[in-house]
Amino acid sequence: MSGINGADVLILVDVGVSAPSFVVAAGQRDVTFDESNNLIDISSKDTGRIEEVLMGRLTQTVTLDMLFINGDAGYLALKDASRNGTAITIRRRFQGADVEDATAFIETRSETFPDQDAGLVSLAFRLSGAWVVVSP
Length: 136
Fold this sequence. Notes:
Elements: E1 9-14, E2 22-24, E3 28-41, E4 53-67, H1 73-84, E5 88-94, E6 97-112, E7 120-127, E8 132-133
Antiparallel strand pairs: 1-2, 1-5, 3-4, 4-7, 5-6, 6-7, 6-8
């Protein structure tokens, strides 16, 4: 069994205008992929203290922390999507191979510039639809 180096997982951003053109968002430090199931409570007086649930919607999010690199094409595309409220296509790359694409909206984008330290950007994406496998 072998582990994986987190540096082998990257997020790419579609910066293409008329055709897809993916670039790595520069300076990535951390990326997290989360999935949560929203359960529907169908308990009633008949069930007593026992909760009964049905499966509801699946929510998928991605959080990305990266260095602030002024002028980076990936960062600029993310900033524009955040400010304009537009969807952006992100791609998951695993050990050098493009794996999946997803349409996402940026829920939050923050920039931090601490004294005598690197400037950082943190983004939280919420997916609209499912991840789609990239054709080889």
